[in-house]
Design a protein that fits this description.
34% helix, alpha+beta, nine-stranded mixed sheet, Ribosomal Protein S5, domain 2, globular, Heat Shock Protein 90
Length: 669
């Protein structure tokens, strides 16, 4: 959450420098002015070594913000993971040192230190200073590799203020240091050791990462734990030495991706439908595939797909093959055992995926990814392999475990029936005009301005506060929607229960965007949607219910920065004709000390206790109000938090509240 007037840093497209000289001709035409520059051999710019990386870092790590900063660590760790895939690494140690220096140590073979024939340089120097140099380009170094492009270590070196490598190999320890990609020492022997492995130490360059060079422990923890799940038996240690006392965690899972699925179920506080994790694996020549599946009582899907330990967040051929196999098996099983009634509409892909928690993990030679970020797998043979494995083995599992199969099938059948109920509810709502943007709810006091970029909608708790807000607002651009009572917890309800809900329909109708299949952010009628509730437990609950609804059914309005929380004061401190407002007990005490004795203190138990003038000057006047913008910094973490806080299980919710209560200063935050 951010204050309304706080500057928000945004990534901007890099400007392209155009050197204009006497050869440039400005041509006037019917359209825009055209700049034509002389194009000859002198116009061709050659970037040598790692200069291209420093000039356009976003091309290699995605951004120079926090995401790109953490990507540096991932690139180095991925190289150690490749050693584990090759069967020669069992332990990876990652440390965050004071001043946000990163170290990564593995007990793999160590980067080769012998002289490279083509360059005459030590191989480790070539790997760290030349793009697309390494053991992943058709040589015998790696059969399976996540570091497909071979640019990881050299990119990190280029974007580091300084970078040191130590290789233990052939009885010696070799070391070399680089600064901003350039070697500043020769590769030298600094000691003797009979072990083997690579140790890398670097500091991100603040000239590149101008926003921040501070690493987030939780972000690194999640990534490293994920890698431990994907490589059964591999031990990964993460240590943070930035505080007074070091904090260390160790991740090692013999159960592999089965443990991963169990972890997700626990993290989201899901209740399981089937009693055990279903696991299949298959090996074909130089390719392998495995899946782990469990069904939950949730209404969304959680599929985590990987290729060579790289998270393919945009899916790809392996994920497509998995989904198609699921649908075909469910349909075949239903037909074989006559589980579908005549009134049922049949199962779709969405039905069989509702509530699923699954991990799809494939490993292959010559993986084809889309771009350096490797977000989508393109190998068509993995579609066939995963599809065949799941189609055959899941059907056998269903037939050998009829009770498990029945529970899972009934979950999909319920999803199908709910989908049909949602369609009917949506159609009914449309016929009644309840979801049409040209039909506004009676409780909405609209504004006169029709330019959405200039308007605000206050969603106010209670008729009393709604009345004060209507009188105190600026009618030109501020609209008021008064709600009463607690609304539906959408975390525990399918969308068919949302359509026509008397508490939520006015919100949908006022905003104009629709929900579900009809949602269209372009139809949003207000630039700011402000949730204004009492500064007490009930008000916090209403805010949470509304935020859950927006996150589940209108996430884009949060992602585009349209949702705000109003921050009404808790106290009014007066003396004579002077009055000021306090937003906490501490501010109240400071005002009392400032004004002296005989102050009058009014404690606002709710918004309804403020008269229109007070509500305007404290909470609605753009010149004086405090508002917090709701943002999503980590969508997956937000998703998990909503599931824990708004789901069925009490114990995980209690644990979350007890753990995080120390970070809450006021109820209105």
């Amino acid at each position: 959450m951010r204050p309304e007037n706080e500057d928000i840093k945004m990534e901007e497209n890099e400007a392209v420098d155009i050197n204009v000289d006497k050869n440039v001709v400005f041509e006037e035409g019917n359209m825009d002015t055209v700049v034509t520059e002389k194009y000859d051999a002198d116009a061709i710019q050659v970037l040598e070594g790692l200069e291209a990386v420093r000039k356009r870092p976003g091309m290699y790590i995605g951004s120079t913000g926090p995401k790109g900063l953490h990507h540096l660590v991932y690139e180095i760790v991925d190289n150690s993971i490749d050693e584990a895939l090759a069967g020669v690494c069992t332990h990876i140690e990652v440390e965050i040192l004071p001043d946000n220096i990163i170290t990564v140590r593995d007990n793999g073979r160590g980067i080769p230190v012998g002289i490279n024939e083509k360059t005459g340089l030590p191989s480790v120097t070539v790997v760290l200073t030349v793009l697309h140099a390494g053991g992943k380009f058709g040589g015998s170094g790696y059969k399976v590799s996540g570091g497909l492009h071979g640019v990881g270590s050299s990119v990190v070196n280029a974007l580091a203020e300084w970078f040191e490598v130590e290789v233990t190999q052939d009885g010696h320890i070799y070391k070399q240091r680089f600064e901003r990609g350039e070697p500043v020492t020769e590769l030298e022997i600094i000691g003797d050791d009979d072990g083997h492995g690579t140790y890398i130490k670097f500091k991100a360059d603040p000239e590149v990462f101008t926003e921040t060079t501070v690493y987030d422990y939780a972000t690194l923890r999640n990534r490293l734990r994920e890698q431990a799940f994907l490589n059964a038996g591999l031990k990964i240690t993460l240590t943070d030495r930035r505080g007074e006392e070091p904090y260390e965690e160790e991740y090692c899972y013999e159960g592999g991706i089965k443990s991963y699925v169990e972890h997700v179920m626990e993290a989201y506080a899901y209740t399981s439908v089937n009693s055990e994790v279903i696991h299949f694996s298959s090996v074909l020549e130089d390719k392998s595939a495995e899946v782990a599946i469990m069904y939950s009582n949730a209404y969304d899907e959680k599929i985590y797909s990987y290729a060579n330990n790289i998270r393919t967040i945009d899916g790809g051929t392996h994920e497509n093959g998995f989904k198609r196999a699921l649908t075909s098996v469910f349909k075949a099983y239903g037909r074989r055992y006559n589980l579908l009634k005549d009134s049922d509409k049949g199962l779709t892909g969405k039905d069989v995926l509702e509530g699923i928690v699954a991990v799809v993990n494939v490993k292959l030679t010559d993986a084809e990814f889309e771009g350096q970020t490797k977000s989508k797998l393109g190998n068509t043979d993995m579609d066939k392999m995963v599809n065949k494995m799941v189609s055959e083995k899941l059907m056998v599992y269903f037939e050998e475990n009829p009770n498990e199969a029945k529970a899972i099938f009934n979950k999909a059948l319920e999803a199908s029936r709910a989908r049909e109920a949602a369609r009917k509810a949506r159609d009914l709502a449309r016929r009644k005009g309840a979801l049409e943007s040209n039909s506004l709810p009676g409780k909405l006091a609209d504004c006169t301005e029709r330019d959405p970029s200039k308007t605000e909608l206050y969603i106010v708790e209670g008729d009393s506060a709604g009345g004060s807000a209507k009188e105190g607002r600026d009618r030109k651009y501020q609209a008021i929607l008064a709600l009463w009572g607690k609304m539906l917890n959408v975390e525990k309800a399918r969308i068919d229960k949302v359509y026509g809900n008397e508490k939520l329909t006015p919100v949908v109708l006022s905003m104009g965007t629709g929900i579900g299949e009809d949602f269209d952010i372009e139809k949003l009628r207000y630039d700011k949607i402000v949730i204004m509730a009492d500064a007490d437990v009930d008000g916090a609950h209403i805010r949470t219910l509304l935020l859950t609804f927006f996150f589940r059914y209108m996430r884009e309005v949060i992602e585009q920065g349209h949702i705000y929380l109003a921050c009404p004061p808790l106290f009014r401190v007066s003396k004579g004709k002077t009055h000021e407002y306090a937003f906490s007990d501490e501010e109240r005490d400071e005002l009392i000390e400032k004004m002296g004795s005989n102050c009058t203190i009014q404690r606002y138990k709710g918004l309804g206790e403020m008269d229109p003038i007070q509500l305007w000057e404290t909470t609605m006047n753009p010149e004086t109000r405090i508002m917090k913008r709701v943002t999503i910094e980590d969508a997956e973490m937000a998703d998990q938090t909503f599931s824990v806080l708004m789901g069925d299980k009490v114990e995980p919710r209690r644990e979350f509240i007890e753990t995080n209560a120390q970070f809450v200063q006021n109820l209105d935050i």
